[in-house]
Amino acid sequence: MAFDFDLFVIGAGSGGVRAARIAASHGASVAIAEEYRIGGTCVIRGCVPKKLMVYASRFSDAFEDAAAFGWRFIGEEDRPPSRTPAQPPILEEQDRAAARGGGRRADAPIPVTFHWPTLREKLRAEVSRLSSLYRANLERHGVEIFDTRAEFAGPHEIFLVAEERTVTAEKILIATGAAPWVPHNVPGAAHAITSNEAFELNNLPRSIAIVGGGYIAVEFASIFNGLGVETHLLYRGAPILRGFDMELREKLSQALSARGVNIHTHAEVDRIERCDGQKVVHTRKGEELRVDEVMYATGREPYTFDLHLEKAGVEVAPNGAVKVDAFNRTSAPHIFAVGDVTDTPVQLTPVAIREGHAFADREFGGLEVPPLNIEGVPTAVFTTPEMATCGLTEGQAREKHGDIEVYRTEFRPMMHTISGRQEKMFMKLLVHPETRKLLGAHLIGEAAGEMIQLLAALITAGATKEQLDATIAVHPTAAEELVTMRTPS
Predict the structure, then answer these.
(1) What is the rounded CA–CA span in Å between residue 303 and residue 347?
(2) Residue 69, Cβ neighbours under 10 Å: how many?
(3) What pLDDT does 347 receive?
(4) DSSP conformation letters of 18-64
(5) Is 279 left (phi over 0), alpha (psi -120 to 50) or beta?
(6) Residue 282 in 3-state DSSP?
């Protein structure tokens, strides 16, 4: 049978774009379909714009700390105005105090304002630039792009909705990602926004309630708090960030609370109502919270809606995720899936990219690529302070290996000896007592995400604690503590 394409990719996110480009570089005829914008969740409404918002939210700290180090705005008096964190300056409607409560000097911050429309337009421009680069890269590799929704019409047939025609492909890759999940059984949940809409708000709210306790919820709580918004985080469990190391969960919760994030645990939402231009959140334990905006960040669901996978014989899990094996094969031998649309336990952009690349190399490059090892995948939670982790949690390590050695340190970074912040850095290493191999690393503090990448390389390579200790420290840095911890706690 003659096919229109060797490979058809449904979804132009990080995993789909990488797979399409690599397959084309191996000489395959490739097409890709995207119903929204090329780049997917990470580029358009996830990692990239979110990290830029994180940067914006941290400038309030920079202004405060600069004043402590002697910097002044021209025309300012010799010392910053005395003000407690609970008394923000009165600003125009579009502006918000860059300062947040908690974890700072009593005489800070210096009076600055934040203009949301400026940041929003910058985010739009950067997202558009990156999306254009993704498109240009695909075109440069000869990938045919269809700006339309694509659905299965048969095992090898794909229906292009906007063009009202069907094309065929020998192999098909599903890379449609996932979408924010909002519960349908909570009255008024439709009044809430999700992370998708958070980047496009017309006005920055004065107050917000974020429902959820995962990394997306926690990151946006930190972002809005940093931009001067009264922020509430409602989590049905305790503590936040289920699945991470328990000690890190507790310490990050304390750090966020010190910065002014109001964390409500065991707070399951009963209903949401509109009232006088605001939204009122009612919890099942009787709490009532009145805010300008409500955001749901209670997880994401695989985007398999109306793909008509049954027409291709593709099996899905109860939650709608595409079932795949270690080589990303579905139940249909010629159909594959990568990224968040699958039942993978690790939903991260780099994982989707690695899966897409490996798929293309195996199927079109004739290369023997082993299955992806997800046990040592590093990750970071871009709150302020930042949290990063790699390898086993302490609980997992004890369950798997029994007795382990735990090295931990907590200290005040050098910068804060002058800035006056009480915020501390925390580091924790887990070591096998017999093999001496590093089992896990867990960090909280500035540049934790940068440091964990290098620690992940050591853990992946099977490095030992003694090899880490043999490394000469870079002084003065926070990272030097990683190679100077000698006594297990």
Answers:
(1) 13
(2) 9
(3) 86
(4) HHHHHHHHTT--EEEE-SS-TTHHHHHHSHHHHHHHHHHHHHHHHHH
(5) beta
(6) strand
pLDDT number for residue 98: 35
Query: What is the token pair recorded at 230?
Result: 């009264």
Q: CA–CA separation, 349 vs 251, rounded Å?
A: 26
The structure tokens listed for 411 are 């200290």
The helix (run of H) or strand (run of E) holding residue 167 is strand 165-174
Burial of 388 (0-12, 13-18, 19+ CB in 10 A): buried
Q: Confidence band (pLDDT; 50, 70, 90) for 376? A: confident
Catalytic residue among 266, 334, 416, 475: 475
Instruction: Extract the runs of DSSP E, i.e. beta strands, from 317-458.
Output: 335-337, 379-381, 387-391, 405-411, 425-431, 438-444
| Backbone dihedral angles phi then psi of residue 301, each to the nearest 5 degrees | -120, 145
Q: CA-to-CA distance for 63 and 66, rounded, in angstroms? A: 5
The highest-level CATH class for domain 385-483 is alpha beta
- Give domain limits for the chain: 189-299, 385-483
Q: How far apart are CA 92 and CA 105, in angstroms?
A: 25
**Residue 79's pLDDT band (cuts 50, 70, 90):** very low
In order, the DSSP letters of 294-320 are: EEE-S-EEE--TT--GGGGT--B-TTS
**pLDDT band of 108, cuts 50, 70, 90:** very low
- 119: amino acid identity, one letter: L
How far apart are alpha carbons 62 and 238 in whole angstroms?
31
Q: Which amino acid makes up residue 134? A: Y
DSSP 342: B
Q: How much is the pLDDT for 111?
A: 64
- Of all residues in the chain, what percent are helix, strand and coil, respectively (each to 5)? 30, 25, 45
- How far is Cα 186 from Cα 352, in angstroms, rounded to an integer? 32
Q: Please report which residue ranges of 235-291 form alpha helices under DSSP H.
A: 246-258
Q: What residue type is assigned to position 164 of the chain?
A: E
Q: What per-residue confidence (pLDDT) applies to 345?
A: 84
Query: Residue 357: CA atoms inside 13 Å, Cβ hemisphere, count?
Result: 9
What confidence category does residue 112 fall into, taking pLDDT thresholds of 50, 70 and 90? Answer: confident
Rg (CA), the chain: 24
What fold does the segment set 189-299 form as a domain? FAD/NAD(P)-binding domain (3.50.50)
Would strands 288-291 and 144-146 be described as parallel, antiparallel, or unpaired?
unpaired
Sequence length of the chain is 489
Active site residue 156: no
Q: CA 218: distance to chain centroid?
A: 10
